[in-house]
Design goal:
With 231 residues, the protein is mainly alpha-helical. It contains eight helices and two strands. A two-stranded antiparallel ribbon has the order 1-2. It is found in: Cell membrane.
Amino acid sequence: MSSSIKVWDAPLRVFHWLFALSVSGAIATGWLGGNLMIWHGRLGLLVFGLLVFRLLWGVCGSTYARWSRIVSAPLRLPAYLRGQWRHAGHSPLGSLSVLALLGLVGFQVVSGLVANDDIAFQGPLYRLADSDTSAWLTGLHREAKWWLLGLIGLHVLAIAYYSLIRKRPLVRAMISGRSQRTSAEQQEAQGGAPWLAAVTLVCAVMVVWAVDSAAGWLAPPPKTAPVMLDW
């Protein structure tokens, strides 16, 4: 039995590190504000593109990148808590963490597309939402950053726990793509051809371009005519 197996394909690893850097940059630029808000918007679009890529790659990527694995893993949480988890890839708790992070970042991206701070930033789809909706989502966007920071903190603590206490080098695995085999049930990742990654990347770029350009070719919502009262 080989001492290690391929778990994470190259496109997923590139996504992971670009996602971590771009989300960190978006948080920092949004926090500092001012002239950096233009970069906050650009990084938000980059995060959006990465999320689109990840959604598609979860369908056509290699074994442990697929949503079928990630979504079904939490169903085995009782076995995992009893120490009976023998599978490669994300553990049930790891899958829950991934789903929570991607979901919350996805909300931040969607709300950011129509956000408006009345000073230095307007999302690319701001003109397509009425002012009340934009203001509401902008407020949620600001508040949700605390939940996002909390999830990121838990994610980092979990990685530290597995690396220092459980002696499982998760960071190294996400760099090399290989993980130590601990059970005969664990198999090498299959699928995720390079041409599929290229097609997925092109699709993600096209979606981002369409959204970023939408404000220029879609008309804003019609304004409500004032009500004339007949006294």
